[in-house]
Amino acid sequence: MNPEVLENLVTANHILANEGVVDAYGHVSIRHPDREDRFLLSCSRSPELVQEQDIMEFELDGTDVNPGDRKPYLERFIHGAIYEKRPEIQSVVHNHAYEVLPFGVTDTPIRPVFHSAGRIGQKIPVWDIRDHFGDTNLLVANHEQGLSLAETLGDNFAVLMRGHGCTVAGITLEEAVLSSIYLMVNARIQMQSMQLGDVKYLSVGEADLNSQYNQPPVATERAWEFLCKRVQGKIE
Ligand SMILES: [Zn+2]
């Protein structure tokens, strides 16, 4: 495997922490570049602290391939299930950003309100674990629950998880990270806008034109370089 693959995944962990998307909890994975039936994800550590030696390899049902004495994240099942259901997805971020939570516990949908958030997609469904599994601790703790979440995600790029957080899928690692950041920022701006009055959201066409599929690589590269620069030196 190209060493840059692991380096980028570690950097993505640090960026998500630096931007406030994840704190002690939350995680980011990539599909294995040489084996589409596996994915790479840190062991159970806070993203800010993740290093290359923490990255573990998993089968899509969450089985750890070569764990050693490292403990996996309980919620690794989120990642494998999405890679199983969505062959085009190359990266998954799960987080508990507080700004997003209100939209998962009310009937108000989160929708893109500004151009950079078009990448999160026009439709962001809400998955309620209780509808499918009754009373739980709300965590995705097995492959069946992961598949249920992936089913609700459908063809979209983000899914809210009622009373818990959200999960974002990307066609690249960079897109998954950027979409996670902009989902959080969109939640903040949408909430502020709703306090002022009726909100004018992006139209379906506007969201499509700003979607992950339509992002020019130069725009993504520019944002990625900026985010890498911001995190450099802050996290060793
Ligand atoms: Zn979680």
- By DSSP (H or I, 4+ residues per run), the number of helices equals 8
Number of strands: 7
Q: What are the distinct ligands in this entry?
A: zinc ion
CATH fold-level name = L-fuculose-1-phosphate Aldolase
Report on the biggest sheet.
Answer: 7 strands, mixed
Number of domains: 1
Low-confidence stretches: none
Distance between the termini: 23 Å
Supply the CATH class.
Alpha Beta
Mean residue pLDDT: 95
> Can you name the CATH architecture?
3-Layer(aba) Sandwich
- Morphology call: globular
Q: SSE order in H/E notation?
A: HEEEHEHEHHEEHHH
% residues in beta strands: 5-15%
The helix/strand class is alpha+beta
- Strand order in the sheet with the most strands: 3-2-1-4-7-6-5
| Fraction in helix | 25-40%
Rg computed from alpha carbons, rounded to a whole number of angstroms: 17 Å
How would you sum up this structure, described in words?
The relative contact order is 0.17. Helix 1 packs parallel to helix 6 (173-196) and helix 1 crosses helix 8 (217-231). This protein has eight helices and seven strands. The model has no long low-confidence stretch (mean pLDDT 95). Strand 6 and strand 7 (165-170) form a beta hairpin. The chain has a single domain (3-231), classed as 3-Layer(aba) Sandwich (L-fuculose-1-phosphate Aldolase), CATH 3.40.225.10. It is globular, with a radius of gyration of 17 Å. The two termini are 23 Å apart. 38% of the residues lie in helices and 14% in strands. It has a seven-stranded mixed sheet with strand order 3-2-1-4-7-6-5, with helices on both faces. The chain is of the alpha+beta class and 236 residues long. Residues 75, 94, 96, 139, 164-165 line the site of zinc ion.
